[in-house]
Amino acid sequence: MQRWLNETAIVFAIEFRRFLTEWPVYLLVSVIATAPLFLIRLAGEFSSLEDTRLLAGAVVFGLGLQSINGTGQLMVSERFEGQMKLFRTAPMSKAAYVVGVTLFTVVMATVSTVAVLGLGAAAGIPFELSPLLLPLVIMTGASLTGFSVLIATNARTASGGALLASALGVLVAMLSPIFYPIERLPVALQWLAHLSPFTYAGEAFTEVLSGGASVLSQSLILLGFMVATSAIGIARMQWRER
Amino acid sequence: MTMNDEQVAIRVVDLRKRYSGGTIANEGINLAVERGEVFALLGHNGAGKTTLVRQITGELMPTSGEITVCGVDVLRRPREARRFLGVVPQEAELFGHLTVMEHLYYFGRLRGLDRKTVASRSEDLIRHLNLVEHVRKATSQLSGGLKRKLLVGIAMIARPPVLILDEPTTGLDPFSRHEVWSLVRQCQLAGTAVLLTTHYMDEAENLADRVGIVSGGSLLTVGTVEELHARIGHRYRLTFGSPDQERPGHLRRLTEYGATVADLQSRAAELGLDEYSVARTSLEDIYMEIAGQQLCREVHRAAMA
């Protein structure tokens, strides 16, 4: 266990050095990707709940970009550029690599959330800061890591893998009712939305940002997604090619 | 050559690799590399060297066969086997945002070294690889040759009992190549087994105790350079200008092989040559002869098919 923790910490440290040198880019991407969402407020009067839901939706959308897109593209580039070879030829487990990269994703997700909340404050949206935000960010950011791993290890080309990661991140965010209540969706899409962790993340962030704390059920679902998709991703990851 | 199990660092038995598309990349490979031995694999591009190496490092699953590293089964316990390996993969890339020192630090730590040991070994490697002035640079600022040297350093930082170097000196200038050779020799003296793939015949001739020639996915021959000389049966080559003025320029310079200088001199006399040179056959000559014959057979087979 000690060895595994050491391996995970080293992978995280290597990736985190990337963040230290490139953090303005990560911050800018989060701002550019989510700022236009706030323009919707120009369309008319928004109730307090609608404002909070918009902010929560922007947070989840940003987290979606960072988790599937960010992690997927990072792993795809490390696989095709050759950095992953340095890990694969070292005596370490693939689980340590996946968890180390996921921890890095969580850091990026936190930065993204801070940026989006800053934008929300600048747009005049009132919200509550709660300690519950951090575990929600972690669970949402890591809820689909397994998909990123599957894309990264099964992509045939770097460009194909990067495109797939981007498309899937946006698709999952768009299919989830993060900006409006799930009841507004057609019934078929409601079924689909229930399969997305971002649906529950949207509900949980709306609750917490409006000052509530009743997010136990959503948190358990997000935790379940995080554990299940990570386990599938690690199990299916091709650390050794066939 | 027979070796007992304790002497053997790498053992490959009846290895076969067939890709899902049907391409057979390795066929019937049997190989044993002894502790403290440098074994060079030679072969043209696409011959199957890197496929073989990647199966030994546990990156690629063989179709059938057995591989052990220091007695550990690579197929069943790849992670444990990798503890005995230091690897310079052919197409590995460094992390552009990390410095030279950070690479050695993190990959030393990943192999279980404590901070103090990593620091002292990093200093040694940096000095031997002549990377002192680049220590604090991000590797994105380094030339391809310097990056390659750092990859060699990363492979050696934990002083593993087996080193797998897949074209470690490709892109290096002559001075840098000699720095790497010197490190490989030091490792060998310390008892490390080294499996090296290279396109540089002088590198194999300088470093290797034994050489294997790979072509068409198979290991055609294995032996010391002397044994290979004996196997092809001629020790000298005669190079002469052809008196035939009708031949194009590049064909006027011809090479013939013979077992002794006298053989070759008589051949020169027979041809009526008064200007020629006689030299000992090199590893390149041996390689061209053995691999060349195989290549001709492959081309012929492909044409017939």
General description of the model:
- The complex is a heterodimer of chains A (242) and B (305).
- The longest helix of chain A is centred in the first third of the chain and has 34 residues, at 48-81.
- Chain A has ten helices and no strands.
- Chain A starts with a helix and ends in a 6-residue tail after the last helix.
- Chain A has one domain.
- Chain A has helices at residues 2-34, 48-81, 83-88, 94-122, 133-142, 145-154, 158-175, 187-194, 197-209, 216-236.
- In chain A, helix 1 (2-34) packs parallel to helix 4 (94-122), helix 2 crosses helix 5 and helix 2 (48-81) packs across helix 9.
- By secondary structure, chain A is an all-alpha fold.
- Helix content of chain A is 75%, strand content 0%.
- By secondary structure, chain B is α/β, with parallel strands linked by helices.
- Chain B folds into two domains: 8-225, Rossmann fold (3-Layer(aba) Sandwich), CATH 3.40.50; 230-304, no CATH class.
- Chain B is 39% helix and 26% strand.
- Chain B contains eleven helices and 13 strands.
- In chain B, helix 3 (100-110) crosses helix 4 and helix 8 crosses helix 11 (283-304).
- The interface between A and B is medium-sized, with 24 and 31 residues.
List the helices and strands and how they pair.
The complex is a heterodimer of chains A (242) and B (305).
Chain A: H1 2-34, H2 48-81, H3 83-88, H4 94-122, H5 133-142, H6 145-154, H7 158-175, H8 187-194, H9 197-209, H10 216-236
Helix pairs in contact in A: 1-4, 2-4, 2-5, 2-6, 2-7, 2-9, 4-5, 4-10, 5-10, 6-7, 6-10, 9-10
Chain B: E1 8-18, E2 24-34, E3 38-42, H1 49-56, E4 64-69, E5 72-73, H2 78-82, E6 85-88, H3 100-110, H4 115-128, H5 144-156, E7 162-166, H6 174-189, E8 193-198, H7 201-207, E9 210-215, E10 218-223, H8 225-232, E11 236-241, H9 249-252, E12 253-258, H10 261-271, E13 276-280, H11 283-304
Parallel strand pairs in B: 3-8, 3-9, 6-7, 7-8
Antiparallel strand pairs in B: 1-2, 1-4, 4-5, 9-10, 11-12, 11-13
